[in-house]
Structure prediction request, 556 residues.
Amino acid sequence: MICKSIVKFPVRYYECDQMGIVHHSNYVRYCEVGRCDMMTKGGLPIGEFEKKLHVMMPVVSVELHYKHVAKVDDVLTVVSMIEKDPMAKVEVLNEIYNQDEVLLCTAKIVLGFIKSDTRRPTRCPEAFHEAIRKVGLGV
Amino acid sequence: MICKSIVKFPVRYYECDQMGIVHHSNYVRYCEVGRCDMMTKGGLPIGEFEKKLHVMMPVVSVELHYKHVAKVDDVLTVVSMIEKDPMAKVEVLNEIYNQDEVLLCTAKIVLGFIKSDTRRPTRCPEAFHEAIRKVGLGV
Amino acid sequence: MICKSIVKFPVRYYECDQMGIVHHSNYVRYCEVGRCDMMTKGGLPIGEFEKKLHVMMPVVSVELHYKHVAKVDDVLTVVSMIEKDPMAKVEVLNEIYNQDEVLLCTAKIVLGFIKSDTRRPTRCPEAFHEAIRKVGLGV
Amino acid sequence: MICKSIVKFPVRYYECDQMGIVHHSNYVRYCEVGRCDMMTKGGLPIGEFEKKLHVMMPVVSVELHYKHVAKVDDVLTVVSMIEKDPMAKVEVLNEIYNQDEVLLCTAKIVLGFIKSDTRRPTRCPEAFHEAIRKVGLGV
Prediction:
């Protein structure tokens, strides 16, 4: 494990669908909230990352498994983990829990790195490596 | 009335909230769908507008009145109208109906024009005037 | 002023559009986040409100004025205020600021009260009055 | 292949992020638009399905692979396919193309069936089998 980071926030009303549960598409977004919070904790917020390094991180694949539902007013904990050293791509694992520590969802998100101007693939920037090492297991 | 344009599309499941109705925030987005469709009909799709004219159209204000609810599987009709010649700003009026011609929502959206590089206000580009005249009352 | 409540959270990446700013539709959602947080602080979370009182709060109208833009990594402060005693409807005023205390947006959201089963209008429940009095000006 | 269904619609401006591309989370929603359109074509719109059969279809897992980006004004084609006879679960495969027939994304979405009242799993309703057989390969 290279780094592990945790962020908590309540479910928002508009995220709940007519089954009375958080719509499944929002978990993809929660994973992004987790990743961005991790980068901020590493001293490299995503906005700064894009602006200073001229690199962007498009998502290559997502895989999510839904185990239990979340409801309005639930407070979610999103755990973001990087286990493998990023090369051309970075793999972020997520676990999302509710306030009762029930595991709601697991996810694996793979992202690439591209140069903003050419939109061509590039290797993981050194600054990103530093950021995730800085996060470490501080959680 | 300078121009009037109509577009139809079904409500999407994820747009419905736990009251079993379209969440109110989506109507703001439906108005945008209507505006963009109008620009496309005028031969000036928003993507091209931004790229070729180096101008962007940020929203200055929105005002929406909700009269009846929409539900999943409803097919909506979004009417977009421009009544006043755009100057520094453009005012778009919207009416949103369901398949039974029930008026669900009225809206007034005001947008500005800014230069993409400086982000400073600019006047309504001539190409936009031409586009909405081209749309006319063709609906 | 009957009550005033404040909540802070960072802009999410997916909320930013291709102008590089928070899409205007999200402010409507931020106002909801503010309202729900206020109700939670008053001891009446929206989920409990709906379930126990069998009442729902559909939005009747929204009016938002956008003054400055928000960007990714900005931390927003949403202020929610109720000035007039709710009767058939409740009017919630919002002000949204960034981390530099720049006022980004003002909003007025009007909501009604309906019975969940009949979907007919009902008066503001006593529990809602109590909740907002409990919030008071605690902020 | 039991059924295959196609629906087309333009990218919406608000779906594009600050990389200038459709945010990856929206493809999860596009798959849902494809599924719901397929059910409507089979004579069993999702709203009716929920209301008449008292069954809901929560998503169990999603897996998406992103191959090329979509941009504003692109017109997308969402292909939805069911290859295996649904039992306790149904697996829907999606392919999403742009107007130039470039494959942007492939997806596999697995959904379960639960009774609305008890929220307990149930088998795929006969009406769902009929609906997808009715769709067939009509596309």
In short: Chain B touches chain C through 21 residues (CB under 8 Å). Chain B has one domain: 3-137.
